[in-house]
Amino acid sequence: MGVTLGVAVLTVGDRPRELCALLDSAAAQEGDRATVVVLGQGAPLPELPPGVHAVELPENLGIPGGRPAVRSAAARWGG
């Protein structure tokens, strides 16, 4: 049985350069491609690279509220 990896990124949209660097780093990893989900909390997300899934919440729920939302989304997409 193989291992399925997921990358969950929570953002409030205030560090676009760092988000881009993080997504580039995730894409550069060796091995099976991970499911990548970016959760925008109370801010619209920028255009994301192909294969990166986006979820936008209307408000910032913080880590305690964002973690279950991104985990649920990742499970839908196989991560």
Task: Give structural notes.
The chain has helices at 16-27, 62-76, and strands at 6-11, 35-41, 52-57. The protein has two helices and three strands, in the order E-H-E-E-H. Helix 1 links the parallel strand 1 and strand 2. It is of the alpha/beta class. 16% of the residues are buried. The model has no long low-confidence stretch (mean pLDDT 89). It has a three-stranded parallel β-sheet, with helices on both faces. It is 34% helix and 24% strand.
Secondary structure: elements and pairs:
Layout: E1 6-11, H1 16-27, E2 35-41, E3 52-57, H2 62-76
Parallel strand pairs: 1-2, 2-3
Per the principal axes of the C-alpha atoms, what is the gross shape?
Answer: globular
Report the portion of residues in β strands: 15-25%
Radius of gyration: 12 Å
Task: Determine the mean pLDDT.
Answer: 89
State the low-pLDDT regions, or none. none
Summarize the biggest pleated sheet.
3 strands, parallel
Q: Give the strand order, joined by hyphens, for the main sheet.
A: 1-2-3
**What pattern of helices and strands is seen along the backbone?**
EHEEH
Distinct helical segment count:
2
Structural class: alpha/beta
**Ends distance:** 15 Å
Write down the oligomeric state: single chain
* Secondary structure tally: strands: 3
Helix % is 25-40%
Structure described in brief:
The protein is built from two helices and three strands, in the order βαββα. With 79 residues, it is α/β, with parallel strands linked by helices.
